[in-house]
Design a protein that fits this description.
alpha+beta; Butyryl-CoA Dehydrogenase, subunit A, domain 3; 5-stranded antiparallel β-sheet; 5 helices; 52% helix; 16% strand; elongated
Length: 196
């Protein structure tokens, strides 16, 4: 298969470097605001742990029967560090190889990772918001408390927000840069075929 441009090789290497930020920045955040919490409560989801106001959120959610949020709820924490490491390593290898197949493979890995994380977050949110303790102190018939996947949602007297945090935005940028590289190589390939 044909070689990719030197610019796209540099972009692959840049994206592999940017992905390292996932180990040092939060990837996702869930925030809650209510009259009793006007400053808001915030939970940060990292590659291998949680931070923020997790204990306070657990205390509030206990009354409506939601599960206790803890690291044990996220088995992904035990293997995401290795998944990211593999993709980052392949990214550096793809930059060295410099072939179109390596670019397309790296882009596919990033795309599958992004889709997988979003599906996983949705499924976690659905389970967390729907499987409530029937003995909870506060019960609202027919009410579910699934946080939004992305964006804002009203849950009783709380306004909930869910979306990418610093690391998540960096990964979104990585996906966009790689999409640009893939499209540019596809266009180059078409021109080569037309000239052949």
């Amino acid at each position: 298969m044909k070689n990719i441009s030197s610019v796209n090789r540099l972009l692959i290497a840049l994206c592999a470097v940017l992905m390292i930020s996932a180990y040092f920045t939060p990837l996702w955040q869930i925030s809650l605001w209510a009259p009793q919490y006007p400053e808001g409560l915030n939970m940060k989801i990292w590659i291998d742990h949680l931070s923020g106001d997790v204990d306070i959120i657990n205390g509030v959610n206990h009354y409506i029967g939601m599960k206790h949020i803890g690291v044990e709820m996220f088995p992904e924490f035990s293997y995401l560090v290795y998944v990211f490491g593999f993709i980052i390593g392949f990214g550096f290898l793809a930059a060295v190889i410099g072939k179109r197949w390596s670019l397309y493979t790296f882009f596919s890995m990033i795309t599958l990772l992004g889709i997988g994380v979003l599906v996983d977050m949705y499924l976690w949110g659905y389970d967390y918001g729907h499987n409530l303790d029937p003995t909870a102190a506060i019960k609202v018939p027919g009410m579910a408390y699934q946080p939004p996947l992305i964006g804002y949602k009203e849950l009783l007297n709380f306004l909930a927000y869910s979306g990418p945090d610093t690391g998540g935005w960096i990964l979104a940028a990585v996906g966009s840069i790689m999409l640009y590289a893939v499209v540019s190589e596809k266009l180059k390939s078409k021109k080569e075929k037309a000239l052949a």
